[in-house]
Here is the input.
Amino acid sequence: MSSVSTDSRAAVAAQLAEARAATFALLEPLSDDELARQWSPLQSPLVWDLAHIGHFEDAWIGQRVGGLSPVLEEGEELYDAFRHARDGRGGLPLLDPAAARDYLCRVRNRTLAVLGDESLGAEGDPLLEDGFVFGLVLQHERQHVETMLQTIALAGLLHPGGGPRPVPGSGDVLVQAGPVRLGADDAWAYDNERPLHERELAAFRIDATPVTNRDWVSFVGDGGYRRRELWSDEGWAWREADGAEAPLGWGDGTVRRFGRDEPLDPDEPVQHVCFHEAEAFARWSGARLPTEEEWEKAAKAGLLRGIGEVWEWTASPFVGYPGFRAFPYPEYSEVFFGDEYRVLRGGSWATHPSVARLSFRNWDFPIRRQIFAGLRLARDADPIASLLGPGDRRAALEADVREGLASSPKRLPPKWHYDEEGSRLFGAITQLPEYYLTRREREILEAHAADIAAASGADTLVELGAGTSEKTRLLLDALRAAGQLRRIVVLDVDEVTLRESVARLAAEYPAAEVKGVVGDLERHLAELPREGRRLVCFLGSSIGNFDVEHRPRFLRALRAAMAPGESFLLGVDLVKDPGRLVAAYDDAAGVTARFSLNLLSVLNDELGADFDLSTFEHVPRWDAGRELMDIRLRSREPQHVRIPALDLEVDFAEGEELHTEISAKFRRERIEAELREAGFEPRAWWTDEAGDFGLSLSAAV
Ligand code: AVJ
Here is the structure.
């Protein structure tokens, strides 16, 4: 501490005195018996915390820095926090309150002597740099004052106590995507706040104020504690075991506070809720908990009000920052790193300002309610995640066109039909009298959506291809009616279609979390969100676009992206009278022909090609051998086409056919065999009355 001036020594001594006065004042109103009792297995007897404050100070300053022997021989055995769990401390031969106070005074005298020793710190001990060890001891004592207040509140002892100040709710703020500097390098920051480092965060929204009692009353009134779908599995297990119906201490319009029932103030931040309750509340609100990084970014930007009224649960497990180094000992933070704790941020009304740094990380088990903890809500700014970079779609189109037009026969993958116009035309196809597929599938879903919801037990619906959202609604309604619906994920290649679909779904299913993934069915299945118990739907016989080689590859990739027990709902068009099949792809109004030709428009629009659509003809044929509709565009005349973006020129002979799409037709046995082959177990099979279309429900095994 050679760099520390006499003035800073005096300042440290003053802070130590102030902290000690606060500790003694806190316990002043309590009797010796109240101090000695173990009130709850969750909390130490108050007299243990008191003597532990002295033991910690002696261990770090008198012993570690001053090189002195312990003030209390049995201190290590009785008051080291790692020797005995909290629930066993009441049974130890603890010092009585008077002896504990005396112990603290004796320790303190030695601390002041060490602090005054001018020769200290000359050898550059990092513990002494900027007086770190004194900061450690000071913060430790301040933190125990809060812990003791928790004990006093939990025990229901009469005490002046305190509570959060009202912070009326006031909407949310948008935090733009970009970097945040996380952590601290202040001299007295804890190891778990270090190193100060930078992280990129996606844009998010966060409430300007914590959740209030008023909000929580609505949650309780809406059956929040009874609605299984709002809770995680772990959270529900806690709720069932605990029987909680409201935050700890709530009565009928009252809240129990330090031994008295007070009227509930609707504008006060809610407190005494555990992480599981916070998470269920967030889900009920159509929101989520912020991560600790999001919280810190918004807090450091000055966007949050009401910080320091209640600790705020975050979604983050307690882990070390990149480059973490335990200092001065692993027992402060490192031994607690892992999944079982959640981080709390901000500090409560009971937290001393010296501890309530914006970078300060508190942590506790997700079931703990005795802490003065509430929450603040966050939301994704953009529910759409794009797995296709801005240039990806274009690069894939270019590669497919280059390769397809160079092969013989010429071919193009059917997915490029679906630009905005193509999606619109396909929508029109589903309304055509000849195109029975969509109606038949809807008929099956109308009859069996409830069975599918029940059999799958799903809380998350994943839809592959957003175009079919119309029919998915039947499933979503069934899941919602069964109280199961929590999350909707839609995947589509086209961002425009996807955004519309996500916005509509979010409006129609406000209690569900809706996410969109811009991605390619053949490349991005593994990256689908994995939360929840999923029902993956691939409807409309879209699987018919894959040929016999690609189908198993697709099914295997899907299976690999799923967990055992999750469900897969597959719609398939069935083999039938060829006359009806051909009619479905060669309608009288010519919509399907326009849909087919639109593929050339996509090449014209996006690659600057000069296809003359009037020189091509839509040719749908039934291939009886392969049992598929084989759709081609036939050049009516010899011609030369330029595709400037690819620096490519292609010739078509008169009558030459460009393969644009296959639409395979299925039989139950064959598709079920393919599903089994890929690792699914078919569980149910339904068809419409006429037997035109099939719906298969299988489980990943
Ligand atoms: C969207 C692939 C299921 O194969 O019936 C309709 C596409 N093509 N008319 C189908 C389509 C021409 C459709 N799928």
Notes: Residues 132-155 form the longest helix (24 residues). The pocket of N,N,N-trimethyl-histidine is lined by residues 429, 437, 540-542, 544-545, 585, 592, 595, 661, 663 (CB under 6 Å). The longest strand covers residues 311-318.
